[in-house]
Amino acid sequence: GYELGRFSGRVSFTRQGTALSAGNTGAGNANAGITANPDTYVFDRGFNRIDVALKYFITENKKWTMFCNLNNLTSAGERATLRDETKVLNDQRFGMTGEIGIQYKLF
Hints:
rod-shaped; four-stranded antiparallel β-sheet; mainly beta; five-stranded antiparallel β-sheet
C-alpha cells in the first residue's frame, strides 16, 4: 500500500498455481479429484489476479472518504481440466468488477 496525505492506494497481486482438485473446490468437479485412475484426475488450473483500491479522505478526521475499488483487472477465470490443458471440464469467467462511492464513518 501507499499513503500520502489524504490519499491512500493499494495494488494487490494474487497467484494461484495449478493444483489437483480435492473435489468440490474452485472450478473443480464435486465428484472428481484423486481417483484410482490418473487419466481421470481433475486439476484446478492456475491464474493471476490484480486488484486496485484507491481512497481519498475528504475531511481531516477521515469521517468522509471517496473510494474506488477495481477487482480482477486481468479478468482471470477459473478453469478445471481433466489430466491436461486440452480437456476442459469447466471454464468460468467473471470479468472485472468495481465500485466507486462516498463513505461516511459513524464511529
